Amino acid sequence: MAVLGARMLFPEKKAAEAVETASMHRQGENSALAALALAVARALSEAMTIARNWIGASGETGIALNTDYLPTPMSPQMLVALIQAVQSGNISRRTFFANLQRGEIVAADTAFEDEQIEIEAEQPTMASQAAN
Q1: Strand, helix or coil at 12?
Q2: Is the pLDDT of residue 6 over 70?
Q3: Which of 6, 36, 90, 93 could disulfide-link to 85, CB 3.0 to 4.6 Å?
């Protein structure tokens, strides 16, 4: 695990390497690291359950560790394609929103309904700015 972690911190090679090849190297390393993170999360969750029972508390306990080690944000081309798909009616706004979350443009914990309320609240402000 120490070797995998250290390898992730090393700078990328200067030599040319196909994108798919580099991705396969990273996926193998990340899957081993993610498996370890999931095992640690399970152990910590069990420890939290024991602590909860020991102090006499009730409710759910659990710990989840982030396993997204190499986030890949949405490319501009993908964003344009999604906007065109919404505008042409080929995908719903909810599907568009889910893709924005997966592409790490919108926070994963933001609800679609909350975002719609936020957009509606900004509409009068945006219209008045355009008039000025």
Answers
A1: coil
A2: no
A3: 90
Tokens describing residue 88:
């042409």
pTM (predicted TM-score): 0.50
pLDDT tens digit sequence for 15-24:
555 656 666 6
What's the rounded Cα separation, in Å, for the pair 39 and 76?
Answer: 36
CA 74 to chain centre: 11
Domain ranges of the chain: 2-55, 76-131
Give 15-73 as a DSSP string.
S---HHHHHHHHHHHHHHHHHHHHHHHHHHHHHHHHHHHHHT--S----------S--P
58 phi-psi bin (left φ>0, alpha ψ -120 to 50, beta other): beta
50-93 pLDDT tens trace: 999 999 998 888 888 887 776 677 888 999 999 999 999 999 99
